Structures are given as structure tokens and as C-alpha cells.
Amino acid sequence: EAQVTQNPRYLITVTGKKLTVTCSQNMNHEYMSWYRQDPGLGLRQIYYSMNVEVTDKGDVPEGYKVSRKEKRNFPLILESPSPNQTSLYFCASTRQGANSPLHFGNGTRLTVT
Amino acid sequence: GEDVEQSLFLSVREGDSSVINCTYTDSSSTYLYWYKQEPGAGLQLLTYIFSNMDMKQDQRLTVLLNKKDKHLSLRIADTQTGDSAIYFCAESINGDKVIFGPGTSLSVIP
């Protein structure tokens, strides 16, 4: 089944403790992206990747890192999480950039205390 | 700058039509999308329209695009309780970016 898989679904952590949210897709998509969803703000793009070893900042990249060593994986790294990073995070992929529909994972709800 | 706006809430009676409106600012957008998010789930593509089209119909869904006014609408005919969800309007820009609106929460009253 074609899908985007994120892990974990829920995560509660403390300020400053490094964490990684994994994202994997099995559709051989070139483009992958991370978004955060906050009430009343919709989805805001954090980072995106057009292909392996190519990553670019989105609208809200501060406090986040990403890597794209393989086509299928696009982990999101929070080196020193802070409470303002408490949010619902979505990974998405698409065949060829923003001109084809995004396939979304089921989300990771992160709480930073 | 790039911005997509939607009203945050809409309530309709079961069987009526729902119309969700969206305005966007970037005239260079190539595709405009409607996504649906059900509780606890990710976003799923509902439909999309290419920027050189005025209208697209797909079963109960009708998308209208007014490029001059940068206005997009989604009409759901014969709205059912299963249509209750958050609906996001989104535009693609330059092939590498998708800008989302804040989402419209649709409540269907039985």
C-alpha cells in the first residue's frame, strides 16, 4: 500500500532534550516536506527536499534540522526542543514538487514541557 | 507576500449544499488544491484545479476558480454527516512550495 509513515504518533518531551521524528515513503517520490499545524494558522512549511541530498528552508525553519540521505526517508530533528515547538507535525511527499498532489502521513503530536 | 485565506467555520444542514470559499494572493500559482482532514488523520487530497481552468466537477464536488479576483470555492452538493471535517485550500507556487490556508471546519447538522 502506498503510504507515508511517521513515527512516533505522540511524543511528550522536556525542553532541551534532542528528538527525531522519522518519515518514510514507499512511492519513490522525489519531493518530501515537513509541516507544522497550529490552530488558526493552517499548515506552515518547515523544510522541504526536492531530491536526495537537496534540502531547503520553508517558512518556519528555526529550531529544526532535516536530512535526506536516502530517497525514502526524511527525518525531522529538534536539537533542543522548546515549548513553542509544541504542535502537530506532518510529513508529506509528492512525485514532482508542488505541481502534483501531496501525500500526507498521519501526523505526530509533539508536546514539549 | 504569499497568503491564503479562508473563513474558519461553516455549519450546514444535512442534505443542503456547502460552499467553502478561499482567496489567495500569488498570481503565479499553477495548481490550487482542496484537502480534507478528518479528526486524528492527515490531510487527504479532495480535488484540484489547474490555474487555466474556471471550473471542475467531480461527483458531488464543484470547484470554481476566479483568477481575476484570486478566489476559489468548493461546493459540496447534498452534504452528509460524513463530510464533517476541516477543509484546506492550498496553492502551489513555482513548483517547489505549497501554501495552505488556515482551514475551514465544516459541521453538518443532522
Characterise the protein shown here.
The complex is a heterodimer of chains A (113) and B (110). In chain A, 0% of the residues lie in helices and 50% in strands. Chain A is globular. In chain A, the strands form 2 sheets. In chain A, strands 2, 4, 5, 6, 9, 10 and 11 form a 7-stranded mixed sheet that branches. Chain A is mostly beta strands and 113 residues long. In chain A, strand 5 and strand 6 (54-57) form a beta hairpin. Chain A has no helices and 11 strands. By secondary structure, chain B is mainly β. Helix content of chain B is 0%, strand content 59%. Chain B has no helices and 11 strands. Chain B has strands at 4-6, 9-13, 18-24, 31-37, 43-50, 55-58, 61-66, 71-76, 85-93, 97-100, 104-109. In chain B, the strands form 2 sheets. In chain B, strands 2, 4, 5, 9, 10 and 11 form a 6-stranded mixed sheet that branches. A 5-stranded antiparallel sheet of chain B has the order 1-3-8-7-6, with no helix packed on it. Chain B is globular. The termini of chain B are far apart. The model of chain B has no long low-confidence stretch (mean pLDDT 92). Chains A and B meet through strand 4, strand 5 and strand 10 of A and strand 4, strand 5, strand 9 and strand 10 of B.
